[in-house]
Design goal:
It is a single chain. By secondary structure, the chain is mainly α. The protein folds into 2 domains: about 45 residues, no CATH class; about 60 residues. About 50% of the residues lie in helices and about 10% in strands. It contains 4 helices and 3 strands, in the order H-H-E-H-H-E-E. It has a 3-stranded antiparallel β-sheet with strand order 1-3-2. It starts with a helix and ends with a strand.
Length: about 120
Amino acid sequence: MKEDSLKQFIALRTALTQEKARLESRLAEINRVLGAAPASAPRTMQAPTRGRAANALSLRDAVAQVTKDKALTKQQILQAIAKIGYKFTARDPMNSLNVALYTPGNFKNNGDGTFRALKK
């Protein structure tokens, strides 16, 4: 009985391993056709990682640029920096924005839900 279960397990594992190899091969072919960069070696049992976006400005500089002339709410800031081309890779861009806004010395919190770049 144990031997039958073991043989069944080995057969299923082998089949899954072969199917995985076929799928990875197919995905590599699709990426090649679409011109995508080849995927690195497959990660196992890890959370997917996010690369750093290639932004011309830091988040702090992007926020300073859009808030230099008028105070904006956090949502307006997110929209404005997206318009100037800033890209987030974080799952929660608002969290990253909050860090920048509430770091002492970066921006003025007007107390009404708006923020403005500090005058320098």
